[in-house]
Design brief:
heterodimer, A: 111 residues, mainly beta, six-stranded mixed sheet, globular, B: mainly beta, four-stranded antiparallel sheet
Chain lengths: 111, 115
Protein backbone atom coordinates (compact mmCIF):
# COMPACT_ATOMS: atom_id res chain seq x y z
CA UNK A 1 0.00 0.00 0.00
CA UNK A 2 0.87 3.66 -0.01
CA UNK A 3 3.34 4.66 2.66
CA UNK A 4 5.82 7.27 3.74
CA UNK A 5 9.18 6.71 5.39
CA UNK A 6 10.92 9.60 7.01
CA UNK A 7 14.13 10.09 8.86
CA UNK A 8 14.01 9.07 12.46
CA UNK A 9 14.73 11.63 15.09
CA UNK A 10 15.18 13.26 17.32
CA UNK A 11 17.30 15.86 15.60
CA UNK A 12 19.06 18.51 17.67
CA UNK A 13 20.63 21.50 15.98
CA UNK A 14 22.16 24.82 16.86
CA UNK A 15 20.53 28.02 15.67
CA UNK A 16 21.44 28.96 12.09
CA UNK A 17 22.40 25.37 11.25
CA UNK A 18 21.20 23.64 8.08
CA UNK A 19 18.34 21.21 8.47
CA UNK A 20 17.45 18.26 6.25
CA UNK A 21 14.76 15.72 6.99
CA UNK A 22 14.63 12.87 4.54
CA UNK A 23 11.33 11.53 3.28
CA UNK A 24 10.69 8.80 0.74
CA UNK A 25 7.40 7.39 -0.37
CA UNK A 26 5.79 4.35 -1.93
CA UNK A 27 2.62 4.84 -3.93
CA UNK A 28 0.74 3.06 -6.67
CA UNK A 29 -0.07 6.26 -8.52
CA UNK A 30 1.10 9.85 -8.55
CA UNK A 31 0.51 11.26 -5.11
CA UNK A 32 0.54 14.77 -3.79
CA UNK A 33 3.20 15.23 -1.13
CA UNK A 34 3.05 17.33 2.01
CA UNK A 35 5.05 18.41 4.98
CA UNK A 36 3.09 19.15 8.13
CA UNK A 37 4.47 20.72 11.29
CA UNK A 38 3.25 20.29 14.84
CA UNK A 39 4.53 22.90 17.27
CA UNK A 40 4.49 22.07 20.99
CA UNK A 41 0.96 22.06 22.31
CA UNK A 42 -0.60 22.79 18.94
CA UNK A 43 -2.32 20.90 16.15
CA UNK A 44 -0.86 20.03 12.78
CA UNK A 45 -0.33 22.78 10.28
CA UNK A 46 0.41 22.43 6.61
CA UNK A 47 3.95 23.66 6.02
CA UNK A 48 4.25 23.09 2.29
CA UNK A 49 3.12 20.82 -0.49
CA UNK A 50 3.84 19.71 -4.03
CA UNK A 51 1.36 18.10 -6.35
CA UNK A 52 3.48 16.83 -9.22
CA UNK A 53 6.98 15.77 -10.11
CA UNK A 54 9.66 18.47 -9.98
CA UNK A 55 7.38 20.86 -8.12
CA UNK A 56 9.04 22.69 -5.27
CA UNK A 57 7.03 23.61 -2.22
CA UNK A 58 8.29 26.39 0.00
CA UNK A 59 7.18 28.26 3.09
CA UNK A 60 8.81 29.99 6.06
CA UNK A 61 12.26 29.31 4.62
CA UNK A 62 11.58 25.59 4.23
CA UNK A 63 11.74 23.89 0.85
CA UNK A 64 11.05 20.45 -0.53
CA UNK A 65 11.19 19.20 -4.11
CA UNK A 66 9.04 16.38 -5.43
CA UNK A 67 11.52 13.90 -6.93
CA UNK A 68 9.73 11.19 -8.84
CA UNK A 69 12.90 9.39 -9.89
CA UNK A 70 14.00 8.90 -6.29
CA UNK A 71 10.47 8.91 -4.82
CA UNK A 72 11.60 11.50 -2.33
CA UNK A 73 10.42 14.77 -0.83
CA UNK A 74 13.19 15.86 1.51
CA UNK A 75 12.61 18.92 3.67
CA UNK A 76 15.37 21.53 3.94
CA UNK A 77 15.99 24.83 5.64
CA UNK A 78 19.21 26.74 5.34
CA UNK A 79 19.25 28.47 8.71
CA UNK A 80 17.02 27.22 11.49
CA UNK A 81 15.73 29.22 14.42
CA UNK A 82 14.67 28.18 17.90
CA UNK A 83 11.08 28.75 16.80
CA UNK A 84 11.45 25.94 14.27
CA UNK A 85 11.54 23.40 17.08
CA UNK A 86 8.64 21.09 16.35
CA UNK A 87 7.64 17.70 15.03
CA UNK A 88 7.65 17.45 11.26
CA UNK A 89 5.52 14.95 9.36
CA UNK A 90 5.87 13.96 5.76
CA UNK A 91 2.63 12.81 4.16
CA UNK A 92 1.15 11.74 0.87
CA UNK A 93 -2.29 11.79 -0.60
CA UNK A 94 -3.70 10.10 -3.67
CA UNK A 95 -6.64 11.73 -5.39
CA UNK A 96 -6.62 14.47 -2.76
CA UNK A 97 -8.28 12.22 -0.29
CA UNK A 98 -6.81 10.40 2.67
CA UNK A 99 -3.42 11.33 4.01
CA UNK A 100 -0.79 8.76 4.91
CA UNK A 101 1.73 10.12 7.37
CA UNK A 102 5.31 9.28 8.16
CA UNK A 103 6.32 8.63 11.74
CA UNK A 104 7.33 12.22 12.39
CA UNK A 105 10.70 13.73 13.16
CA UNK A 106 11.23 15.77 16.30
CA UNK A 107 13.52 18.74 15.73
CA UNK A 108 14.99 20.74 18.58
CA UNK A 109 16.92 23.92 17.84
CA UNK A 110 19.18 25.26 20.57
CA UNK A 111 20.01 28.92 20.93
CA UNK B 1 -6.79 30.39 7.39
CA UNK B 2 -9.66 28.10 8.12
CA UNK B 3 -10.11 26.90 11.68
CA UNK B 4 -11.03 23.50 12.99
CA UNK B 5 -11.90 23.32 16.65
CA UNK B 6 -11.89 20.21 18.81
CA UNK B 7 -13.56 19.92 22.16
CA UNK B 8 -12.61 18.96 24.74
CA UNK B 9 -8.89 19.49 24.34
CA UNK B 10 -8.25 17.06 27.14
CA UNK B 11 -10.41 14.71 29.14
CA UNK B 12 -9.86 12.21 31.94
CA UNK B 13 -12.45 9.52 32.49
CA UNK B 14 -12.95 6.31 34.41
CA UNK B 15 -12.68 2.95 32.75
CA UNK B 16 -16.02 1.80 31.37
CA UNK B 17 -17.43 5.24 30.67
CA UNK B 18 -18.01 6.80 27.25
CA UNK B 19 -16.43 9.99 26.03
CA UNK B 20 -17.54 12.21 23.16
CA UNK B 21 -15.13 14.42 21.24
CA UNK B 22 -16.41 17.12 18.91
CA UNK B 23 -14.77 18.42 15.77
CA UNK B 24 -16.13 21.63 14.28
CA UNK B 25 -15.15 23.56 11.19
CA UNK B 26 -15.67 27.13 12.30
CA UNK B 27 -15.68 29.12 9.09
CA UNK B 28 -16.14 26.62 6.31
CA UNK B 29 -18.23 23.63 5.37
CA UNK B 30 -16.73 20.18 5.39
CA UNK B 31 -18.50 17.26 3.75
CA UNK B 32 -15.66 15.01 4.82
CA UNK B 33 -13.83 14.84 8.12
CA UNK B 34 -11.14 12.44 9.21
CA UNK B 35 -10.35 11.07 12.64
CA UNK B 36 -6.80 10.15 13.55
CA UNK B 37 -5.19 8.64 16.58
CA UNK B 38 -1.68 9.57 17.60
CA UNK B 39 0.36 7.52 20.05
CA UNK B 40 3.29 9.10 21.88
CA UNK B 41 6.21 9.72 19.55
CA UNK B 42 4.41 8.01 16.70
CA UNK B 43 2.65 9.10 13.58
CA UNK B 44 -1.00 9.72 13.06
CA UNK B 45 -3.06 6.65 12.33
CA UNK B 46 -6.19 7.20 10.33
CA UNK B 47 -9.13 5.67 12.15
CA UNK B 48 -12.07 6.58 9.98
CA UNK B 49 -13.46 8.87 7.35
CA UNK B 50 -16.62 10.71 8.28
CA UNK B 51 -19.00 11.83 5.54
CA UNK B 52 -21.86 14.19 6.24
CA UNK B 53 -25.17 12.41 6.26
CA UNK B 54 -23.80 8.91 5.82
CA UNK B 55 -22.05 6.21 7.76
CA UNK B 56 -18.38 6.56 8.52
CA UNK B 57 -15.81 4.43 6.75
CA UNK B 58 -13.48 2.73 9.18
CA UNK B 59 -9.91 1.68 8.53
CA UNK B 60 -8.93 -1.92 8.94
CA UNK B 61 -8.54 -2.92 12.56
CA UNK B 62 -10.60 -0.07 13.98
CA UNK B 63 -13.68 -1.23 15.89
CA UNK B 64 -16.67 0.72 14.66
CA UNK B 65 -18.74 -0.20 17.70
CA UNK B 66 -15.99 1.05 19.94
CA UNK B 67 -15.39 4.33 18.15
CA UNK B 68 -18.73 5.75 17.10
CA UNK B 69 -18.59 8.53 14.55
CA UNK B 70 -21.43 10.83 13.65
CA UNK B 71 -21.27 13.58 11.03
CA UNK B 72 -24.65 15.22 11.44
CA UNK B 73 -23.93 18.51 9.74
CA UNK B 74 -21.46 20.15 7.38
CA UNK B 75 -19.59 21.68 10.30
CA UNK B 76 -19.67 19.03 13.00
CA UNK B 77 -18.40 15.50 13.42
CA UNK B 78 -18.27 13.65 16.72
CA UNK B 79 -16.20 10.70 17.89
CA UNK B 80 -17.53 8.73 20.85
CA UNK B 81 -15.20 6.31 22.57
CA UNK B 82 -17.56 3.79 24.14
CA UNK B 83 -16.75 1.82 27.28
CA UNK B 84 -13.32 3.36 27.38
CA UNK B 85 -10.37 1.41 28.73
CA UNK B 86 -6.83 2.54 29.60
CA UNK B 87 -5.54 1.29 26.25
CA UNK B 88 -7.82 3.83 24.56
CA UNK B 89 -5.79 6.62 26.13
CA UNK B 90 -4.35 8.57 23.26
CA UNK B 91 -4.33 11.82 21.35
CA UNK B 92 -7.22 12.04 18.91
CA UNK B 93 -7.02 14.49 16.04
CA UNK B 94 -9.62 15.41 13.47
CA UNK B 95 -9.20 17.05 10.12
CA UNK B 96 -11.83 18.63 7.92
CA UNK B 97 -11.80 18.82 4.16
CA UNK B 98 -12.94 22.20 2.90
CA UNK B 99 -15.85 21.62 0.57
CA UNK B 100 -14.80 23.93 -2.26
CA UNK B 101 -11.02 23.76 -2.33
CA UNK B 102 -10.50 20.28 -0.93
CA UNK B 103 -7.83 21.57 1.42
CA UNK B 104 -7.42 19.80 4.74
CA UNK B 105 -7.36 21.61 8.06
CA UNK B 106 -6.53 19.99 11.37
CA UNK B 107 -7.91 20.43 14.82
CA UNK B 108 -5.63 20.90 17.80
CA UNK B 109 -6.33 17.43 19.08
CA UNK B 110 -8.00 15.95 22.14
CA UNK B 111 -6.00 14.08 24.72
CA UNK B 112 -7.94 11.25 26.34
CA UNK B 113 -6.72 9.61 29.52
CA UNK B 114 -8.66 6.63 30.80
CA UNK B 115 -7.99 5.67 34.41
Amino acid sequence: GDSVTQMEGPVTLSEEAFLTINCTYTATGYPSLFWYVQYPGEGLQLLLKATKADDKGSNKGFEATYRKETTSFHLEKGSVQVSDSAVYFCALSLLGYKLSFGAGTTVTVRA
Amino acid sequence: GAVVSQHPSWVICKSGTSVKIECRSLDFQATTMFWYRQFPKQSLMLMATSNEGSKATYEQGVEKDKFLINHASLTLSTLTVTSAHPEDSSFYICSAREQNTGELFFGEGSRLTVL
